[in-house]
UniProtKB/TrEMBL annotation:
Residues 12-58 form the DUF6922 domain. It comes from the Bacteria. This is DUF6922 domain-containing protein.
Length: 104
């Protein structure tokens, strides 16, 4: 078995070559990146690779501020944590508004 994610996940794990990622050492990055921007096939791979308990524990105990609001909500539902309270600021990226005067 490979000790790194497959090349098909390169777009999801975009910041590092998948060959340089270790499934154990880099699991927080791999889990959060996959939950936050991965597609359905990426999620399937994630749940085949890591036990649900590990994925949930990582999500809960090692927050990553990389989620868009909708994806954060989806991840909570997919992990069975829909009714659990989280501090959104630990997970959801801020997208500041651009405040400008309207042109005259």
């Amino acid at each position: 078995m490979l000790n790194h994610p497959p090349k098909k996940l390169q777009a999801t794990l975009w910041s590092t070559d998948t060959n340089n990622l270790d499934l154990e050492k880099d699991k927080n990055y791999i889990i959060h990146q996959t939950l936050s921007i991965g597609g359905i096939e990426d999620w399937r791979w994630l749940f085949k690779t890591y036990p649900s308990k590990t994925i949930i524990s990582t999500f809960v105990k090692e927050p990553a501020k990389i989620y868009m609001p909708q994806r954060f909500s989806l991840a909570k539902v997919m992990l069975g944590l829909k009714n659990r309270q989280f501090i959104r600021e630990y997970y959801v990226v801020n997208t500041p508004r651009i405040i400008r005067q309207k042109p005259a």
